[in-house]
Specification:
- By secondary structure, the chain is mainly α.
- It has 2 domains: about 280 residues, no CATH class; about 40 residues, no CATH class.
- α3 packs across α11 and α9 packs antiparallel against α10.
- The protein starts with a helix and ends in a 23-residue tail after the last strand.
- One of its GO terms (cellular component) is plasma membrane.
- Its main location: membrane.
- It catalyses: di-trans,octa-cis-undecaprenyl diphosphate + H2O = di-trans,octa-cis-undecaprenyl phosphate + phosphate + H(+).
Length: about 350
């Protein structure tokens, strides 16, 4: 990965992290369409440190108040009924499911879950779920001059049950294409919360899991962690770009959902998923190339080992100009065959 790729991917990460469109899916799709290597789950996790830093700064007053109330609740029994203290405890509780599932399915998250066909499917499915949840929430609005709106819940109404369900919804974001904010906001709307409350709690809930994941994946940067070498320079640049654009995206998104529905995001997700499936069905491989290019799976070339005189060499599977793949030597030979 070079600095240009890092800048572009950091911009994509920052713009899409807080929108219900899945930043991990957009990083994967952007790299595939540009013909770049899959940046990998480690790069995605580390750049999310930048966007979560934007959350820390944007909600710094709320976070400071929640942390203070949560800390006091350890020693003062009356503080355990405080809304901020309860939110702090429920954020911890809601982080447990994604932590356990993330460790259990780490190999799948870094491999099969990054398949573009799966990403396209989850874009469509979660888009429809988000649309249904938004429609359900809109039924509570007043329909006439004399009708009263159905009351919607806010953060002071957050219960242990809702906190656990929020956490389970967030766990679905382990699959690229689902969208962390999209899953938790959909869950919040179905639980009866306002759009603003669902979005705010979604951002707060994501912080522990995302920051922990980013720190954990720091060890994978600078090597062949996910099949493509990702060096420190482009990763740091991408993280900085993601922070700047992510901060602007938070401010815009919270203003937007205060008065508008999620319909544009639903249509975008479904259209993008269908377009991606059409491109894959029409002969594009998982790096955006035609069928005559390298055959790739999850952004990496499948390789097999061939022995030449006891020394290992790599040969890529695939076809070229309609010719079948060279099966290679069937047994050891003293020297490689001439081409």
């Amino acid at each position: 990965m070079n600095f240009f790729e890092g800048t572009v991917l950091g911009l994509v990460q920052g713009l899409t992290e807080f929108l219900p469109v899945s930043s991990s899916a957009h990083l994967r799709i952007t790299a595939a369409l540009a013909g770049w290597d899959d940046p990998g789950a480690a790069f995605t996790a580390v750049t999310q440190i930048g966007t979560e830093t934007a959350v820390l700064i944007y909600f710094r007053k709320d976070i400071a108040r929640i942390v203070r109330a949560w800390a006091l609740s350890w020693t003062r029994r009356e503080m355990r009924k405080d809304t901020d203290a309860r939110v702090g405890w429920l954020v911890i509780l809601g982080t447990i499911p994604i932590g356990l599932l993330g460790v259990t399915f780490q190999d799948a998250i870094e491999g099969p879950f990054r398949d573009l066909r799966l990403i396209a499917t989850t874009l469509i499915v979660l888009g429809l779920i988000l649309g249904g949840a938004d429609w359900y929430a809109s039924k509570g609005r007043p329909r006439g001059r004399h009708s009263l709106p159905r009351p919607r819940k806010t953060l002071p109404d957050l219960s242990v049950r809702d906190g656990v369900l929020y956490g389970l919804a967030q766990s679905a974001a382990l699959i690229p294409g689902v969208s962390r904010s999209g899953a938790t906001i959909s869950g919040g709307l179905l639980l009866g919360y306002t759009r603003e409350a669902a979005a705010r709690y979604s951002f707060l809930l994501a912080m522990p899991a995302v920051l922990a994941s980013g720190v954990f994946e720091l060890k994978s940067i600078g090597g062949d962690g996910d099949g493509a070498e990702v060096s420190w320079g482009p990763t740091i640049l991408a993280t900085i770009v993601a922070f700047a654009t992510g901060y602007a995206a938070i401010a815009w998104f919270l203003r937007y959902i205060a008065t508008r529905s999620f319909a544009p995001f639903v249509l975008y997700r479904v259209a993008l998923g269908l377009l991606l499936l059409a491109l894959l069905a029409g002969g594009r491989d998982q790096r955006g190339r035609g069928r005559t290019g390298r055959l790739t799976t999850r952004g990496r070339t499948r390789r097999r080992r061939v022995n030449y005189g006891g020394r290992a060499a790599h040969a890529a599977y695939g076809t070229r100009a309609g010719r079948p793949p060279d099966p290679g030597p069937s047994r050891r030979c003293p020297t490689p065959p001439s081409p």
